[in-house]
Each structure stands twice: as C-alpha cells, then as structure tokens.
Design goal:
heterodimer; A: 589 residues; alpha/beta; Glucose Oxidase, domain 1; Enzyme I, Chain A, domain 2; TIM Barrel; 3 domains; 16 strands; globular; B: Histidine-containing Protein, Chain: A; four-stranded antiparallel β-sheet; 4 strands; 24% strand
Chain lengths: 589, 99
C-alpha cells in the first residue's frame, strides 16, 4: 500500500449474475469492432461513393417504410417526427460532403471514413452543455449505425473468437451480438445500461458466468487488455485492481467457495421442503451447449428452450432437419426429463430479417412471439414438425410465447393438428400426445387464465415480460427499471389468478422468468402454489437450498400475508427475514 | 430573367430571429427547419455568436445548441431568398409547433 501507486478504478453497477471473474477487458463497441479499415485505389473511389449512396438510399427506404407503418398504425406524431429527424440526417450535406471529400483525399474504404466522421459529430453532441441536445446524440448514433449496417450488408462477428478470461465491457449487448459468442473464453459481462432482466443478464446466468449491468459510462472509460475483477455478487467492476484488492478477493473467494461446495452437494438430492412438498426444478437454455451445465447442477428437465437463437443472424430459416437435430439432441440428453420447447419468440429485442420482423418503433408491443408464428404459418409448421418428431424420442413439450388470449391458442392448436395429420399421412413417427403449454406473460392472458387453461396442458409464467407489461416499465431502460417489482401487489394478484385457474383445471403451472431463479422469491412462488421453477443454471443450487430448508406451510403463510401487503418492499422484507433464518449465507453472497 | 435579374427580387436576404420555444432548436425543430430550408433553391446559412453553419444541415443546427432566447442570424442567397426567409420565419412565429 505504501509507496506503491495504484490506478485502480472501481465502477459500481448492479450484479445480475453471481460469481467473480478475473481476467482482462475487451471493450465491445458495435460500430468499431465491425468496421474494416483498408486502402483503396484511386479507381475505386467512385465505387465507394456509389456504395455510400446506395446505403443512404436503403436507409431512407427503411425509415420511410417505418414511417408509413407508424402513420397507418399507431399514428403517433411524436415518434414519426423522430423519424423525420433520422431521415434529415441521411440527407445532411454536413455528413455526406465530408465523406466524399475525404474518400478522394485519403483513399480509405467508405465504412472507415464514415465512422470517423460520425464519431466526431456524436462526440461533439455529447459534449454540448444542453442536456436535451446531448441526449439527441442517440438519434445520430441510431441512424448512423443503420447506415453502417447497410454499408456492411451483414451483422458483425466481433465476439466470435476472444482470448481466454475475457471480460466483455459494452454499452449494451443485444441477442444478435451474443448469438455467435465465444462461450468458452468469455469470463464475464459488464454493460453500461440494463437491468436484472436485460438480455446480458439472462445470457450470463444461462452461461453461469458473472455479469454486472448499469455501469453508466464504464465502456467509455476502460481499455482493451486492462486487468480487471468482475464481481457479480456486489455488482462491481474493478479495473487494474491493487494488491490489496486482489488479496481481499482471494479471501472472499475462499468463503464463497465453501458455500458453493455445500450447494454442489445438493446435486442429487430432491427439491423437497422440510414438510415433504416436491417442487420441480428445471433450467432455461438457449443452445445445446448449456445442457451439460444444467445436468451438472441436477436440473430435472428444461423448462424453457429458447429456439429463436437458431433463427438469428441469418437470412434463411433453419430447415426442418436442422431444427430436428437440435431439438432431438436436447430431448435425448435430458431423457426421461421433460424438455419444453418454446416456438420462436422473434420480435421484441430479437429479430430475424426485416422481411419477417420489420423494424418497429415499439417492438415489445409489436409483431412478436405467437403473432409472428401465426402470420408466417409455413415457418411455424416447419418448426412444429421438427418439435413433434423430436417428441417421439423422449419427453418433449411444446409451448407458445406471448399468448394474449385464448383465440391465439385455439388457432395455434389447430395448426398443430394440421401438422400432426400431415405427419400421420407421411408415416413419420411423432409425439401423438405431446403436452402443449402457454406462456403467460401478457396481462390479458393472466387475467383470462381460466379460459386459456381449458385449451392447454400447462402454464409457464414469463415473469420478466409480465412485469414489464403490467407495470409499463421498459425492462432495459435503467432509469425506470427500478419500478419493475416482481412482488408488486398487481403482479401477485395476476399470479394468484393464474395459479387458481391452472389448479382448478388440473394443469400445472411453472415460472420461467428471472424471479424463478432468485432464491429470495422462492418461498413466495412456492407458497402461492407454483409447481415448477425454471431458471439459469447458476441459480439452481441456491433455489434448491432454499426449498430444502423451508416448510411449505410457512411459505403459504408468507404468500397469504404478501397478498395483503401494500408495498412490494414489505414483501421483500418478509422474504429477506425468512431467507436470513434458513440460510444467511445465501444473502451475504 | 431569374438568374440575372437585378431589378426584381433581391438575391440576398438577411433576418435575425430569437429562438422562441422552451426547449430550443433541438432535433425535432432542427429537422423542421431543414425540411423548410430544402424547399428553396437558395443557399441558407445560420449564424449564432459568430459560428456559421449550413442551414440545410440538421447536425449543423443541432451543434449550434441554440437554446430559448438565443439570437440566430439567417442568411439566404439565391433566386428565392426572400421566400425562403418568409418560410423560415413562419417556423419561428409558430414556435416550431411546440407550444
């Protein structure tokens, strides 16, 4: 400590996936990583200008299409004027002229020059004293990113191959950024924005690596290759840690290690309360690689197989065979346990090509989930065939995303019957009696759960979206994310309604959103009557520990009291007191 | 007649405006300004505190960071300079449709 100078920097954010990673930083910037930089010949200048003009035209077309959709649909003046701003930027002589001048002078590829120029503008805007204008840098960023993407003509692959022990620091990570991720070598994620339910957090938990979000401007202030500690428990990113910090972390690691060891011993023990109530614990996966880790923690099935990752970052759709291979591998690997395969949930923050899910101003309220499936029936049927066939090899279940009412279920079920008739006619083996479930994540579905229950074999609550839609809180906007309270009286009432509807109709109900993996909420969910919890691998042992140390009876009492609570914080306080009593180590880590 | 005219409409028009709306010339008013400016052939510049930008550039306008009450000198040069200034003046009178 004495005499030794340290340049240690500590960034405080929100820990959203447990664990500690030590490694070196890789700053991931969507634009930069992807921008090629090369020299061109004088003859190629006109070609580069033509490419630039084409990209501007394509961008304007996309923006106009968006604008038309908005004026014919929701018809909001405010948002269409944002598009006016975007269109004006694509026509701005102050942007176009310098690109052409510098192309002629410097003879570099147009992406590189364009990016240099726009970066300067964005930087200047961000430095303006007027806060309102400063925020508009986002618009310039949005539209220039769109132009760049059109110039590049494909999505970038910046995280495909990274050195071991890489801590990825980014402004935010979208599913398209992480779908080709080097899973073996990435040790942790740290992002400037986000919340417990943003994509980065979900991804990290399913990979069982630490993640911290809400770090404000960390991605601007750190550099590639800096050594760092990422603490997913306390939500800190420590860059260039001092000797002392390294020592403290060494000590902490020993303590946590002993908890991890204790939890690891639970692997083959049942998830059963002290008074003998069994709970089904399963895992959420995105890719087949996640299965090994899930089995390692003793998951009794896959409660959510997110299939959209098969569809991202490509122009075509995966064929029936390609999908079948994926699904049947999961089904065989988990046999005899169930694998709940959710039909693709594109839209929201996960997109295929613009033809399938066109850009929208408000995608979470737009064309996503089952709405896309029902509109692209052939794509849907191909996926259903693959799932039904995989079911012949083990215990597959089928689940529809984003159901908003019983009509969608009836319509989807009819398509399933058609696919079954085709398979029967073709003599292809498939799961005749496959269980079909509905995700309950839209408030209208939660409120009409008793009508939907008669058409399905199970429910699975998608708590992230249910909270987001019920509370009108954008789950990736860190300025409002704190309003997203899973224990809010409104959410608890919806949940009670769903549980009652399920049990009155003799079907089971699970939760596959993030609260399912938070040990704090386990007693509440079990006390309310939830039968199954499905979560990211990292959390399963902790949740099992809580179940094994509590009584169903006390959980039911707690749930009854929670339903009378006025504030979510009162419910959280009750839950904390209970966890404190049964295993305080879970809270301290 | 139009390009060489000496007697008819003047080829240069200048007018000073005060930014009327509470939020100043942020992105949306800037887009409106550019939209109107682009209807005219004239070359249009906007000057604030000695800084001069192309009046058909949304980014230039945003960079001026013209808050409520700031003074903008708008210069139009070309055949339709007078009409251009009239068109732009309307925006200031209507407070960029913001209030």
């Amino acid at each position: 400590m004495s005499g030794k100078t340290t340049s240690e920097q500590v960034f405080q954010g929100i820990g959203v996936s447990p664990g500690v990673a030590r490694g070196q930083i890789l700053v991931y910037r969507i634009a930069e990583e992807a921008i090629p930089h090369y020299d061109i010949t004088p003859e190629q200048v006109s070609q580069e200008i033509a490419r630039f003009e084409q990209a501007l035209i394509t961008t304007r077309q996309q923006l106009h299409e968006l604008q038309q959709k908005i004026s014919s649909g929701i018809g909001s003046d405010a948002s269409s004027s944002i598009l006016d701003v975007h269109v004006s930027i694509t026509e701005d002589p102050a942007l176009i002229e310098p690109v052409i001048t510098r192309l002629e002078q410097e003879k570099k590829n147009v992406e590189f020059i364009f990016n240099e120029i726009t970066r300067k503008y964005i930087h200047t805007l961000q430095e303006l004293p007027d806060e309102f204008l400063r925020e508009r840098a986002v618009d310039v960023q949005d539209v220039t990113r769109r132009i760049l993407q059109n110039l590049l003509g494909h999505t970038h692959r910046g995280l495909t191959s990274v050195p071991p022990g890489t801590i990825v620091v980014a402004y935010d990570l979208a599913p398209s950024d992480t779908s080709s991720l080097d899973r073996e070598h990435v040790a942790g994620f740290a992002t400037d924005v986000g919340s417990h339910t943003s994509h980065t957090a979900i991804m990290a938990r399913s990979m069982n690596i630490p993640a911290v979000v809400g770090l404000h401007d960390a991605s601007q202030r750190v550099h590639d290759g800096q050594p760092a500690i990422l603490d997913g428990y306390s939500g800190t990113l420590i860059v260039e840690p001092s000797e002392q910090t390294l020592y403290i972390y060494g000590q902490l690691q020993v303590k946590r290690h002993s908890l991890e060891e204790r939890l690891a011993a639970l692997r083959d023990l049942p998830a059963e309360t002290l008074d003998g109530h069994r709970v089904h614990l399963s895992g959420n996966i995105e890719l087949l690689q996640d299965i090994e880790g899930l089995k390692h923690v003793g998951a009794e099935g896959i409660g959510l197989f997110r299939t959209e990752y098969l569809f991202l970052n490509r122009r075509d759709f995966p064929s029936e065979e390609e999908q079948y291979e994926q699904y049947v591998s999961a089904v065989r690997a988990m046999k005899p346990h169930p694998v709940i395969i959710r039909t693709i949930d594109l839209g929201g923050d996960k997109f295929h090509s613009d033809e399938v899910t066109p850009p929208e101003i408000n995608p979470f309220l737009g064309f996503r989930g089952i709405r896309v499936c029902l509109a692209h029936v052939e794509m849907f049927k191909t996926q259903l065939r693959a799932i039904l066939r995989a079911g012949a090899e083990g215990n597959a279940k089928l689940m529809y995303p984003m159901i908003s009412g019983v009509a969608e279920v009836v319509q989807a079920n009819r398509i399933v019957e058609e696919v079954m008739a085709d398979l029967r006619r073709d003599g292809v083996p498939f799961a005749e009696n496959i269980d079909i479930g509905a995700m309950i994540e839209v408030p209208s579905a939660a409120l009409t759960a008793e009508m939907i229950a008669t058409e399905v074999d199970f429910f699975s609550i998608g708590s992230n979206d249910l909270v987001q839609y019920t509370m009108a809180v954008d789950r990736v906007n860190e300025r409002v994310a704190n309003l997203a309270e899973p224990a809010h009286p409104a959410i608890l009432r919806l949940l009670r309604n769903c549980v009652e509807a399920a049990h009155n109709n003799n079907i089971w109900i699970g939760v596959c959103g993030e609260v399912a993996g938070q040990p704090l909420y386990t007693p509440l969910l079990i006390g309310m009557g939830v039968d199954e919890l499905s979560m990211g691998t990292a959390n399963l042992p902790r949740v099992k520990e809580v179940i094994r140390r509590m009584k169903l009876e006390e959980a039911q009492e707690l749930a009854a009291a929670a339903l009378h609570a006025i504030h979510a914080r009162d419910v959280v306080a009750m839950l904390k007191a209970l966890i404190q009593r049964i295993d305080p180590d879970l809270l301290s880590s | 007649m139009s390009t060489t005219s000496q007697s008819g409409a003047p080829r240069r028009a200048v007018k000073e405006f005060t930014v009327p709306n509470r939020l100043g010339i942020h992105a949306r008013p800037a887009a409106l300004f550019v939209k109107v400016a682009n209807k005219y052939h004239s070359h249009i510049t906007v000057e604030k505190d000695g800084e001069e930008i192309n009046g058909k550039s949304i980014m230039g306008l945003m960079m001026l960071a013209a808050g409520q009450g700031s003074k903008l000198k708008v210069v139009a040069e070309g055949d339709d300079a007078v009409e251009a200034l009239q068109g732009l003046e309307e925006l200031f009178v209507k407070k960029f449709n913001e209030e």
